[in-house]
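HUMAN: Spend a minute on the protein record below and explain its fold to me.
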Amino acid sequence: MDFTSFVFYFFSAILLLSALRVITARNPVHAALALVLAFFTAAALWMLLEAEFLAITLVLVYIGAVMVLFLFVVMMLDINVEEMRRGFWSYLPAGALVGGLMVVEMVMVLGGKDFGLGAVTPRPADYNHTAELGRVLYTDYVYPFELAAVILLVAMVAAIALTHRKRADTRQINPAEQVKVKRADRIRMVNLKPQKPEAPKEED
């Protein structure tokens, strides 16, 4: 066994153990931290497969943003773990079906030669995965990419519009009214007469 195969099996074992820990941990924070470890290990495997862009995206987006949000939500919510675990076994058939489909897909990908998919074409030494992905994304799939961006923008605006509520106690500023204002509307000159303070009275 060469060093590359050893690293692959080592990270794969860590990935499987951390994924198993996600669904077996009683503490939601421990489960979220195990999911962070699973994402980081998956990024290491992608680096081993020379998919640098996907690995960096997984670390920056999922570990750096999504999982931090998950941790904040889990720590702020009062989650009743025992109540959630009561219906755990009712989801077992659906989970087993999804897991079985994922196993079949991985077997087809890793065992492509046995299924007649052909061997992977070796890449040259100066091959850049990020540049190649960008070239394909912005040439062959530029319209689907822009359509997906517009759909995400519409979804973001719709989420803000649905959750936005007007409050009566909130002060709003109208810039147009501020521009039209004049000095006489805001400043009032008052002539105050000077007053002399009274001397303190002497006690008897």
Remarks:
- The radius of gyration is 31 Å.
